[in-house]
Amino acid sequence: MAEEKVDTTHVPTEENGTVEPSSGNEDPAVQNDEDEEKEATKKKKKKNKNKKKKAPSEQTSPPSTLQQTDPPSIPVNELFTSGEFPEGEIQNYKDDNLWRTTSEEKRDLERLEKPIYNSVRRAAEVHRQVRKYIRSILKPGMLMTDLCETLENTVRKLIAENGLEAGIAFPTGCSLNWVAAHWTPNTGDKTVLQYDDVMKLDFGTHIDGYIVDCAFTVAFNPMYDPLLEASREATNTGIKESGIDVRLCDVGAAIQEVMESYEVEINGKVYQVKSIRNLNGHSIGRYQIHAGKSVPIVKGGEQTKMEEGEFFAIETFASTGKGYVREDLECSHYMKNFDAGHIPLRLPRAKQLLATINKNFSTLAFCRRYLDRLGETKYLMALKNLCDTGIVQPYPPLCDVKGSYVSQFEHTILLRPTCKEVISRGDDY
User: Fold this and answer.
1) Which of 16, 54, 65, 340 is the most buried (most CB within 10 A)?
2) Which residues of the chain have pLDDT under 50?
């Protein structure tokens, strides 16, 4: 607020407070002294005022001097010099569990878990930055292999890849059209992204085995927008309904209701959107992408309850086909069984390949391109042997009927003691 100026030609009388005109006979020296004193007072007030304005900025922490490059290349732990990474979207639990929000006991539990929270938030920040960059360069005509390798190499840089301590959690799924999940190009694949394709981009990051599993769908043709909106809203509904002591079947019923309220017109034909009934979300464990609990996307699922401290991938698949997938096409995804004990192997090549898998992936999923990158050659027979003995599980592409279209959205959530945190939430979805 501007400081009010003082008119020195009038002064109030002491007797009645009325204003008398100046006689103009004051001593010039005295007048100059008064003017200088007033000017000094003004400067002092102005200086104090400026100090007050600066106070709030002094209390905020200074921004990091480093800014992410384009394309991204700086590890996120160098961008966040405090070592603290942004938390995801916070949602309160529903009425029965609302007391948790202010429980001091539950807050104490969270303080104990802070290192774990920070690890998974770091993985989530990498996911957000990578997908933002990939969205900016996606266009029809891209070779799918180039797309995946660009994405994966960006993850490796931003997460500061370090063996099994930090890296990619599973192969980049870039399933097209009626292929719902588990497709990534094998070496030599010449598939090109087309304008009329519907691509599910599903990739994961991890720190110390704490996994962020998050996916979105890309469609250049706006004709598919209602299909994408169906799965995005269904996923958000699943997140909203999830919580401690919530039955998994209730989450599935809520998802299906939202999903099947949509329809989409494709090339003049109207399709009722369906939830794919044999695909699910899932609980996530450390170094274990599927930790045992399934989150259905249709009604009539498990009565099992979600529990405090669990991580879940809430994902939904919207389809214009039958709403049922089957295994098809050439396999690209593999994963060592989490519970596989020691199984004797007779083939030396299988033993050698297993050593490579144990060292580089442990129980995290991998694909053939990853083995090629590590210098493995002529390994298909050894890989088949590992699958036949039950040490490694193949995960072939999952497909609805040919000619149909499938969209997917997915987030990782954490059921904290006091609230629900959508770890992977970003400005995009």
Assistant:
1) 340
2) 1-32, 43-63
139: exposed, middle or buried (Cβ count in 10 Å: 0-12, 13-18, 19+): exposed
- Choosing from 233, 241, 250, 315, the catalytic residue is 315
For 198, list phi and psi in degrees, rounded to 5: -115, 110
Considering the candidates 127, 206, 282, 411, report the single residue annotated as catalytic. Answer: 282
Cβ count near 389 (within 10 Å)? 16
| Interatomic CA distance for residues 259 and 239, integer angstroms | 14
Catalytic residue among 196, 208, 290, 310: 290
**Catalytically annotated residue among 125, 376, 410, 421:** 410
Give catalytic status of residue 213 as yes or no: yes
Torsion from C-alpha of 311, 316, 317, 322, nearest 10 degrees: 110
Give CA–CA dist 302/305, Å, rounded: 8
Bond from prior residue into 71 cis (ω within 30 degrees of 0): yes
What pLDDT score does 65 carry?
55
Q: Which residues contact 205 (CB under 8 A, 6 or more apart)?
A: 123, 124, 126, 127, 130, 155, 159, 167, 168, 169, 211, 212
| Residue 411 annotated among the catalytic residues of the structure | no
> Among 193, 179, 178, 180, which Cα is nearest to 148's?
193
- Clarify whether 10 is annotated catalytic: no
pLDDT at position 340 is: 87
- Specify the pLDDT at position 36: 53
Catalytic residue among 202, 233, 400, 421: 202
- Alpha-carbon span 286 to 288, nearest angstrom: 5
What pTM value is reported for the model? Answer: 0.84
428 is catalytic: no
